Amino acid sequence: MSETNRAARAGDLLAVVSQSGPTVSFFDAASDRLLGTVETLAEPHELCFDPVHRLLWCTNAYYSGYYHANSGRRSELTVLDPDTRQIVAVVDLAPEHGPHGLSLDAQRGRMYVSVEGSAERTGGVVVLDTATRRPIGRIDTGADGPHWFVAAPDGTIGYASNKEAPFVSVVDLLDGTLLDRVEVPGSEGLAVSEDGSRVYVAGPYASIGGAKPSAASGIRVIDTKLRSVVEVLPTENVVVPVHLTSTGKLLAGQVRTGPGDGLGRQDPGLLTVFSAADHTELGRVEVGRCPLTITSSADGRLGYVSGVLDSTVDVIELDSLTRLARLEIPRRGEPGAHGLAYLPRARS
User: Which Gene3D superfamilies does UniProt cross-reference here (predicted)?
Assistant: First the structure.
């Protein structure tokens, strides 16, 4: 990285979850130096940064294990101060459980978190007030396992991916209702375009236990006005995370399975980069095994990919598709690195 690029990121932070840590680690985004680590409740998963209150939200999904292989579902969110690197609150969503995906509407002061269903009700999205850090509503998604969730840029519509259910849930964030179901053969990560016209959804569901995918792997492109899939960007392997950069690049993490299948037998993953403008593939680069989360720097120059089985985060220069660094994330076992958040420095 050039000195100019390092200077542009001075004071920025990268936060990384270690699922088995269980910790959130903070790195200097300019130097990749580890600044400190905060221990959390068991099984932290995803992160979301609220720049208005300058707080970092973290979901704690299970008591141990992971989706479909856990000892019970937690109900908490951990809220951290990234500058002092301290926990400022633990928000209990009980009786809701299995929180995972997070999405922020900073303008309305709303944090959305996907939660798993129970015998009494389907999965859904819990709405929290970011000022009081209290739940103020719930939206049913019509599926038991909503995993990732993203709100449209204008804050009116939201989209939940559902691992086993054959659709993406479309919800009205203002009325708190389920609007529609867009047919997708099981889904993983998703991202919405800056103008809200397209949603990119990874599918089908990535079964680590060796089950064959239910459909051809790739990224489904949803036209949000038509509420239907209008294109599929094909990939050789199942994709889990997707991410859109500020410079119009679509990043996808392919999970490559080695001989024998099963957790721990994956080959190095692939970060595949597409143009969000015309959907052409721009290139690819190897990353850690089983990429689960992707984020990027505020200027869109760097991509960050967590490889859960290696417990690493690869720092990728997106123009040249070269790896600049590999960050080692602390862990106590398997799995390891998971959620990511890029935090621009505080502005005076």
Answer: YVTN repeat-like/Quinoprotein amine dehydrogenase
pLDDT of residue 99: 97
Q: Which one-letter amino acid corresponds to residue 42?
A: A
| pLDDT single digits (tens) 288-306 | 999 999 999 999 999 999 9
Domain count along the chain: 1
The Cα–Cα gap between 297 and 32 comes to 12
Contacts of 2 (CB under 8 A, 6+ apart): none
Domain at 245, CATH number = 2.130.10.10
Beta-bridge mates of residue 306:
293, 313
Answer for the pair 35, 27: CB distance below 8 angstroms, yes or no. Answer: yes
Tens-place pLDDT, residues 89-132: 999 999 999 999 999 999 999 999 999 998 889 999 999 999 99
Residue-number span of the structural domain to which 175 is assigned: 3-343
Q: What's phi and psi for 300, nearest 5 deg?
A: 75, 5
Q: What angle do CA 189, 191, 197 make, to 5 degrees?
A: 140
- 228 in Cβ contact with 211 (< 8 Å): no
Give 142-188 pLDDT, tens digit per residue.
Answer: 999 899 999 999 999 999 999 989 999 999 999 999 999 999 999 99
Q: Is residue 84 part of a domain?
A: yes
Amino acid at the residue 292: L
d(CA 57, CA 131): 13
Is 348 contained in some domain? Answer: no
pTM value is: 0.95
pLDDT exceeds 80 at position 208: no
